[in-house]
User: Which sequence fits this backbone?
């Protein structure tokens, strides 16, 4: 098991390097055709279950995948049991989203200290850092033109598939691992400077802060407003009637017949990625497995990802503005049966600024 984890960690590190390289050069290349229709009939989704259902066969994917343009491996390898989409990779309990990573409410989590002790938002605007136009949320970052036209997409087909609805989109820049997620400047370890209260809300003086506005370009002609990424407590997140698409929850499952339900609303046309991951670092064989279902606001099921074994379940879907959905988390397996079992739920919106798709294939379905 140690050798397996070491091999997967090395591979995951190489993948992360490829992803970083994919968005480091914003120089323009030839224009492409992108789908951005959010009317009924154009609402598509992909999921861990659908990607896994390809069984490594990527012949249906467009743009076509050339294995010679996949660094250090092939598409089927990166989709397999030793690939980064399993719980042993970046989406699992030992990855950056897990209990031992930077985000959490324990003494060893940097977010405990960065957003737990004081509000330093009054002077954070003076820092030329992650909330500036030259940084992850600015024009030269992964949410700028580089998301669509970086030259790396001509030579690296793994990078292509980290974009919306791609095979590795759950590892990409609009997912929970990207600049808009919990590890980015909008999250608990971010540079917004707001203090987190006991429920997970960010506090600005006596008010609750839900958004930040920043300059997007160096010339300071364009501003963008982004939703802050909160780490809510389970009870508070379940009670929220106005939650957005930028939050995480540290939850527990106390029974197999119990469903934990979280309501959220997309305030703009965007891709929304929802991930539920086992967060028990003591579960070395990843026998604790959680299923994920997305329903409409009335509880009618729309999409389910229910992979067994070591896979982490996630769903990415096109969601029109002002659409309310619910994420349902349910414990599927636990061996030996030791309850409660812990999980982490992540909901991450792409924003209206990077909401186009160009990828098609058998791993994509219509949900409405």
Assistant:
């Amino acid at each position: 098991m140690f050798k397996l984890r070491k091999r997967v960690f090395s591979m995951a590190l190489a993948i992360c390097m490829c992803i970083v390289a994919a968005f480091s050069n914003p120089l323009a290349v030839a224009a492409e055709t992108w789908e951005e229709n959010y009317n009924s009939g154009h609402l598509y989704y992909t999921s861990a279950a659908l990607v896994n259902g390809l069984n490594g066969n990527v012949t249906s994917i467009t743009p076509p995948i050339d294995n010679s343009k996949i660094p250090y491996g092939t598409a089927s390898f990166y989709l397999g049991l030793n690939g980064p989409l399993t719980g042993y990779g970046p989406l699992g309990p030992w990855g950056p989203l897990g209990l031992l990573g930077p985000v959490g409410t324990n003494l060893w989590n940097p977010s405990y200290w960065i957003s737990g002790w004081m509000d330093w938002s009054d002077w954070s605007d003076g820092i030329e850092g992650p909330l500036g136009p030259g940084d992850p949320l600015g024009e030269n970052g992964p949410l700028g033109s580089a998301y669509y036209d970086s030259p790396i997409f001509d030579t690296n087909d793994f990078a292509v598939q980290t974009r919306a609805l791609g095979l590795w989109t759950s590892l990409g820049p609009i997912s929970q691992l990207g600049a808009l997620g919990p590890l980015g400047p909008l999250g608990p370890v971010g540079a917004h400077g707001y203090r987190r209260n006991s429920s997970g809300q960010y506090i600005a003086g006596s008010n609750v802060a839900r958004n930040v506005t920043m300059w997007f370009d160096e010339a300071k002609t364009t501003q963008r407003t982004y939703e802050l990424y909160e780490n809510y407590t389970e009870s508070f997140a379940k009670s929220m009637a106005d939650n957005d698409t930028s939050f995480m929850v540290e939850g527990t499952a106390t029974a197999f017949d119990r469903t934990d339900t979280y309501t959220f609303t997309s305030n703009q046309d965007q891709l929304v990625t929802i991930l539920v991951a086992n967060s028990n670092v003591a579960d070395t064989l990843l026998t604790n497995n959680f299923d994920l279902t997305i329903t409409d606001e009335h509880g009618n099921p729309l999409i389910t990802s229910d992979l067994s074994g070591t896979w982490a379940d996630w769903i990415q879907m096109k969601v029109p503005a002002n659409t309310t959905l619910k994420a349902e988390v349910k414990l599927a397996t636990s061996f030996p049966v030791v309850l409660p079992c812990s999980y982490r739920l992540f909901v991450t919106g792409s924003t209206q600024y990077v909401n186009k798709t160009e990828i098609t294939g058998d791993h994509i379905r219509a949900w409405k």
